[in-house]
Amino acid sequence: MRKFNITVNGVAYEVEVEEVAAGESAAPKAAPVAAPKAAPAAKPAAAPKAAAPVAAGTKVNAPMPGTILDVKVSQGQAVKKGDILLILEAMKMENEILSPQDGSVAQVNVSKGASVNSGDVLVVLN
What is the rounded CA–CA span in Å between residue 68 and residue 88? Predict the structure, then answer.
């Protein structure tokens, strides 16, 4: 017999399991009903981070959900139309997010390794 602790719907149970060898009957034997144990108190969920206010300017949004592999620009940096702002991995493909205009980077709202959803503001340009 081996003992295990199992939690079902937030209620913890202590159960005993008997291993049956090949060829033996697996018919259930009368066993005592496991009494529920008090489940440990659940930790409160962390409050979501407040989104940083988005600066005024041209917003470059995520075209699809994915993960930021690399951020190629920093705040204050001058960029030209077509420059690579960051690399977004989505569906096992690396997508270059390009600057839609000449200008400077007013705000970078993501960092390497961040998960983003479609439409999230990644960078703001002036």
Answer: 5
